[in-house]
Each structure stands twice: as structure tokens, then as C-alpha cells.
Design goal:
Mean pLDDT is 86; it is low at 310-324, 327-337 and 346-353. This protein has 10 helices and 13 strands. It is an alpha/beta fold and 353 residues long.
Length: 353
């Protein structure tokens, strides 16, 4: 069995790589994980995508690749985010169909949910209304990924599932000035000045998911075929936090004297988009601890690497690392199940539907 991970050098791909390598013995050879980057293929190209699938010959695919960016990057190029992501998703899922991939798990985002709907967000609400205008292009591309997955599952009888993580953060995040998400942007700014300047009012509420928690949940979805085909990955609603409070924690960790908001309510985006927790059995990393680890990684790993050899920013949001690491494991072998036993607590059973 071979698992192809697209977007394998992005935030979630790197987290999945770390989780797999920390847990799995090197001598497990009955299957492998292949973490693909943009150096392997430009997934907007059907030919490149086919060459990647022909070379790797995957039986399972975890599709994480996307053109991503923060709210301001999306607002500036909504059409580009729509078309680039549509091309990537169509090429990858077409290849999964033609290369007879047994299981395909695709990653969406909570921005796919309607701007105006009842809270907490649940999978059945996905198509109930228009997404928020700030990232409408990206959101519609991800919505259509769910539609394509559902139609292909019905047509082929194979497994096509989607996960919807809330705001991801953690080591390996994108800290670029124009395309970073909120936590990464706060951490970068906190290390550039004694005062953390933040756009908006800080009133918006968000749930945050540590990237390695998301990686472990992805493995659960890969292993457990009883999990519903559309699963929200979110900590409990009571873990929701104001951006102002997140900024305060980051400032304290970075040693900033104070936090200042510019008061522009238009920069807040959606004020609240609480998602229902469908995995109550999972022990999520507390936000303060996840932020501490991320700031530590930024200081000790990201900044020194950037000073030594700053990588050129990618125009299309793809990772630029050239290496394509592999990790050996069989997602259905008893040994794999034993190693990831904590993902299957006896009292929990399948993920809540």
C-alpha cells in the first residue's frame, strides 16, 4: 500500500510527516507514505499530475495541496484562488479515478460554510448559502472539491472523503507578509517590533487547531472507513478565542511590550464561525501550549534558516522544498493500528456523526 500526500511540504503535510516518522519504526516496509511537493509536479497541469501518479502508483491519496493565503491575499485575487484551486482539485481527483486509487481524503476549510447560517457549523450546512465575500473564490473551489468527491464515490464505489479543519497553525507555517494566516502573521509581527500592531478590532472569535492534532486526526480518517465522508476537525466550541486574546498570548511569548489594534472592523472578516466538534474523544493541544511550541520553532528554526538562505516566495502558494520524503507504514496493518492506538480509544468507537 502506498499513500501519496499532495502538498506534502505545507503546514499540514510537514506535520503529518513528523507524526508518521515519530511513531512508525523504520523497518515497517509493507507500505509507504510519499510526501510530494511542487518540485514533484505542478498540480495545475494535468500532464504533471499524471506523471506524478504514474511514478508513485498510490493506492491511497491524502490531498492537501492548494493555493492558500490569508484574508487579505484572498480579497486581492479571489478569481485567481478560484481557478488555481479548481485546476489542482480536478487534476488530482481525475487522476485518483483513472489510477484506481482506493481511498482519497481531501482537505477543505471552514471558509466553505455559508456566511450567514446557524452555529455551530455542521457538515450538512455546507451548501446552504454563499460563503463570506472575503475568500469567496477559494471557498467555492473547496466546496466543489466536496461535490466532486461525493460524485466520484457514487460513480466508482471507491472511498472519497473530505475533512474540514478549523484554523490551522503550528511549526512549519507560512510566515510570508502577504499570504500568512492570522497566527503566523501575529508571530512574525511580534518579532519585528516591541509593539504588536494588529489590523482589525480583535473582536472576531476563532477555533484554532494545532497542525499535529490535525495530522493525527487525518490518520484516523485514513484508517477508519466507518468515519462519515465529510468530517469537521475542530476542538470543542468552548475553546473558541478572540483574536485579541490570541494576540496577547503571542505578544507575551515574544516579549512585546503591548498590543495595538487599528480599530478597522472591516479587517475582522466573519466575527464568528464556530464549528461543531465531531471528535469529542480526541485530546486537543491547548492553544497556549501550541502557540508556545510554534513561537519556539519560529525563533529556533525559521528565523535562523531564513537568515542563512531565504527561500524565494512561491507565486502560487505551493511549498518550495525540493525533497520528497517517504515514510513506511501500512494504514490497515495490525502493527499500524497498534502504533496509533490512541486514535482509537475503546470507549469512543467511530467518530461522532
Amino acid at each position: 500500500m502506498k499513500v501519496l500526500v499532495t502538498g506534502g511540504t505545507g503546514l499540514l503535510g510537514r506535520a503529518l510527516y513528523r507524526v508518521v516518522h515519530r511513531t512508525l519504526p523504520r523497518d515497517t516496509l509493507d507500505a509507504s507514505f510519499y510526501f510530494a511537493s511542487s518540485a514533484d509536479a505542478d498540480l495545475r497541469s494535468p500532464l504533471d499530475t499524471d506523471h506524478l501518479f504514474a511514478r508513485v502508483k498510490p493506492t491511497h491519496v491524502i490531498h492537501l495541496a492548494a493555493r492558500v493565503g490569508g484574508m487579505f491575499a484572498n480579497r486581492a485575487d479571489n478569481y485567481g484562488f478560484l481557478t488555481d484551486n479548481l485546476r489542482v482539485n480536478m487534476n488530482v481527483l481525475d487522476a485518483c479515478k483513472r489510477f484506481d486509487v482506493h481511498t482519497t481524503i481531501s482537505c477543505l476549510s471552514t471558509c466553505v460554510f455559508p456566511d450567514r447560517t446557524d452555529l455551530p457549523l455542521r457538515p450538512e450546512q455546507l451548501h446552504d448559502g454563499r460563503p463570506h465575500a472575503s475568500n469567496e473564490g477559494y471557498a467555492h473551489a473547496k466546496r466543489l472539491l466536496e461535490v466532486m468527491s461525493r460524485l466520484l464515490a457514487a460513480e466508482t464505489g471507491r472511498r472519497f472523503a473530505c475533512v474540514v479543519p478549523v484554523n490551522l497553525y503550528g511549526p512549519g507555517d507560512n510566515f510570508h507578509e502577504e499570504s500568512s494566516h492570522v497566527v503566523a502573521a501575529l508571530i512574525r509581527k511580534a518579532h519585528e517590533s516591541d509593539v504588536l500592531h494588529v489590523r482589525g478590532t480583535g473582536a472576531a472569535l476563532r477555533q484554532f487547531l494545532y497542525c499535529e492534532d490535525a495530522a493525527r486526526l487525518l490518520l484516523r480518517v485514513l484508517i477508519d472507513e466507518t468515519i462519515p465522508p465529510l468530517l469537521v476537525l475542530a476542538p470543542p466550541a468552548e475553546h473558541e478565542m478572540r483574536i485579541a486574546d490570541v494576540a496577547t498570548i503571542v505578544a507575551a511569548l515574544a516579549g512585546c511590550a503591548r498590543v495595538e489594534f487599528d480599530g478597522d472592523a472591516g479587517a475582522d472578516g466573519q466575527l464568528r464561525k464556530t464549528a461543531a466538534c465531531q471528535t469529542p474523544w480526541f485530546e486537543f493541544t491547548p492553544l497556549a501550549e501550541g502557540l508556545r511550541r510554534t513561537v519556539q520553532w519560529y525563533v529556533h528554526e525559521h528565523l535562523p534558516a531564513r537568515q542563512q538562505s531565504p527561500p524565494p516566495p512561491s507565486a502560487h502558494g505551493h511549498a518550495t522544498a525540493s525533497a520528497s520524503p517517504t515514510a513506511s507504514a501500512s494504514p490497515t496493518s495490525p502493527r499500524f493500528m497498534e502504533l496509533f492506538a490512541d486514535l482509537f480509544p475503546p470507549e469512543a468507537g467511530p467518530a461522532a456523526k
